[in-house]
């Protein structure tokens, strides 16, 4: 199926025409690809003859793709009723025109940008990747953010997820959400939910056009959650916020960062969160960055992670709620558990079930870690990184929204090129048969080894690296406590 698709796009004439669709049409005021897609979908009649001509090629590719992926052209056209699907499909076709049909697939623009709009936060979470608290010194102005949103929309980004710090306390968050929606992108937000326990406040976000909300819960009750968040009453308010958005029919994801602190609560949490009526339960991989570096010894062992993912796979079948994980090892775990009546391709953003084994090939194109392919992140000062979990180091910084050309970064940045190549992964990840559906979490590899291509030590295949790390961490801890004792002794002597 992928082969058929590849043959179409490898045809020099088809390739040339597809690339021509990326030019801007003055008459239709859109890139030809978007215009052609709209004509094909019957949403545009009054277009120029060139765009109409292009729509035949686009229609042919889409039709072939739909049949190959086991869906009908009619079903596909129905899905395309949503603006976001059109943007997503445009990005897929643009990716094919720019990068070809390759493993892993690279779309023409990120599907999602996680935008940390402020470092200010009303909590002090022990695992915060942003070490948030106070507002940062060089945060972008609201005008810059609005301009940045325009640029994202123009380059074909499908969705913006506002995060932080805590995005709900930014004074202009509602304007950003409205602007995102008006620009044709999907507005999402990741929040601790504290402020949104108030029904009136949550309604304001819904009225502004928020389509997707992620609310964090760290445990089944306030004991675990409030001690993680270091704010009393945080759990109760987060649950109220979840209820407000579920009642309003908004797409709700509950997110939990799983560590040794709360792993035992996960089975109970699955039931609890399912009963709340949410759409997705996301098990975040712990990544030792930001405040997380202080609790690095709470990271899950490869065995614990693997068992957790097995539980998630099994529980996915019990009800409507999807259980997702940002651990790319979810895909090989799922592959090892495929049975006659259960086959699923887990990704960071959806767990499609499939009936035809040929569709498993799709997993290799989705390709595990989406850093720099499906996602990128923007910091409060406009710095761009492949994913929010990368530390803020020059070596992995891709550029700055204010000073660099966003599309140029997407096409030409060397860090992105490396993240998009599974053949250059090092150690066991490079030799592993599952590298095309997994490839390890590149942010974990970088945070632990200062190398974006290093093995992810969270995998059972990388047990050796995990043990070496554990030894290193306990030696560092022993050294730190020895050092602290020495300082304490010296201070005591000074005062004697
Ligand atoms: S060795 Fe690497 S690529 Fe293979 S399953 Fe483990 S993390 Fe994934
Ligand atoms: S680096 Fe990749 S696998 Fe890790 S959190 Fe980011 S996108 Fe996910």
From TrEMBL:
Keywords: 4Fe-4S, Iron, Iron-sulfur, Metal-binding, S-adenosyl-L-methionine
Any one GO BP annotation for this protein: heme biosynthetic process
Organism: Methanobacterium bryantii
Pfam families: Radical_SAM, SPASM
Alphabetical list of SUPFAM superfamilies matching this protein: Radical SAM enzymes
Signal peptide start and end residues: none
NCBIfam families documented for this protein: rSAM_more_4Fe4S
Residue stretches making up the Radical SAM core domain: 107-320
Highest taxon listed in the record's lineage: Archaea
Gene Ontology MF terms in the entry: catalytic activity; iron-sulfur cluster binding; metal ion binding
Cofactor names: [4Fe-4S] cluster
Family annotation (SMART domains): Elp3
Descriptive protein name: Radical SAM protein
InterPro entries: 4Fe4S-binding_SPASM_dom (IPR023885), AdoMet-like_SPASM_containing (IPR034391), Aldolase_TIM (IPR013785), Elp3/MiaA/NifB-like_rSAM (IPR006638), Radical_SAM_PqqE_MftC-like (IPR050377), rSAM (IPR007197), rSAM_sf (IPR058240)
């Amino acid at each position: 199926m992928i082969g058929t698709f590849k043959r179409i796009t490898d045809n020099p004439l088809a390739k040339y025409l597809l690339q021509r669709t990326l030019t801007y049409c003055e008459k239709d005021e859109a890139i030809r690809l978007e215009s052609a897609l709209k004509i094909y979908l019957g949403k545009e009649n009054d277009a120029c003859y060139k765009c109409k001509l292009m729509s035949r090629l686009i229609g042919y590719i889409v039709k072939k793709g739909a049949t190959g992926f086991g869906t009908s052209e009619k079903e596909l056209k129905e899905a395309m009723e949503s603006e976001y699907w059109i943007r997503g499909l445009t990005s897929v076709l643009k990716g094919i025109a720019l990068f070809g049909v390759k493993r892993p697939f690279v779309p023409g623009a990120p599907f999602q940008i996680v935008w940390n709009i402020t470092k200010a936060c009303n909590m002090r979470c022990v695992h915060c990747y942003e070490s948030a608290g106070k507002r940062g010194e060089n945060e972008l102005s609201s005008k810059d953010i609005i301009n940045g949103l325009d640029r994202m929309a123009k380059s074909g980004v499908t969705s913006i997820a506002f995060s932080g710090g805590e995005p709900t306390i930014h004074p202009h968050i509602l304007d950003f959400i409205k602007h995102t929606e008006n620009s044709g992108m999907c507005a999402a937000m990741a929040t601790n939910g504290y402020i949104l326990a108030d029904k009136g406040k949550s309604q304001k976000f819904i009225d502004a056009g928020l389509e997707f909300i992620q609310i964090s819960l760290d445990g089944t009750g306030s004991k675990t959650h409030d001690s993680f968040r270091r704010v009393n009453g945080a759990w109760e308010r987060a649950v109220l916020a979840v209820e407000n958005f579920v009642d309003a029919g908004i797409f709700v994801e509950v997110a939990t960062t799983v560590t040794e602190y709360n792993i035992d609560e996960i089975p109970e949490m699955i039931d609890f969160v399912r009963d709340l009526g949410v759409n997705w339960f996301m098990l975040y991989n712990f990544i030792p960055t930001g405040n997380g570096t202080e609790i690095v010894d709470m990271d899950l062992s490869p065995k614990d992670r693997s068992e957790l993912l097995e539980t998630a796979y099994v529980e996915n079948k019990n009800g409507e709620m999807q259980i997702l994980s940002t651990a790319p090892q979810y895909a090989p775990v799922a592959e090892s558990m495929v049975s006659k009546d259960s086959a699923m391709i887990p990704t960071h953003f959806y767990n499609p079930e499939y009936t035809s084994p040929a569709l498993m090939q799709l997993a290799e194109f989705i390709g595990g870690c989406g850093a720099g392919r499906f996602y990128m992140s923007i910091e409060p000062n406009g710095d761009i990184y492949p994913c929010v979990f990368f530390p803020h180091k020059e070596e992995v910084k891709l550029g700055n929204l204010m000073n660099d050309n966003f599309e140029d970064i997407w096409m030409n940045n060397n860090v992105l090129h490396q993240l998009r190549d599974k053949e250059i992964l090092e150690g066991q990840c490079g030799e592993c048969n599952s590298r095309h559906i997994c490839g390890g979490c590149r942010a974990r590899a970088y945070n632990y080894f200062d190398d974006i291509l290093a093995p992810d030590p969270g995998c059972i295949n990388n047990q050796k690296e995990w043990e070496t790390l554990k030894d290193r961490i306990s030696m560092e801890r022993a050294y730190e406590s020895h050092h602290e004792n020495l300082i304490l002794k010296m201070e005591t002597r000074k005062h004697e």
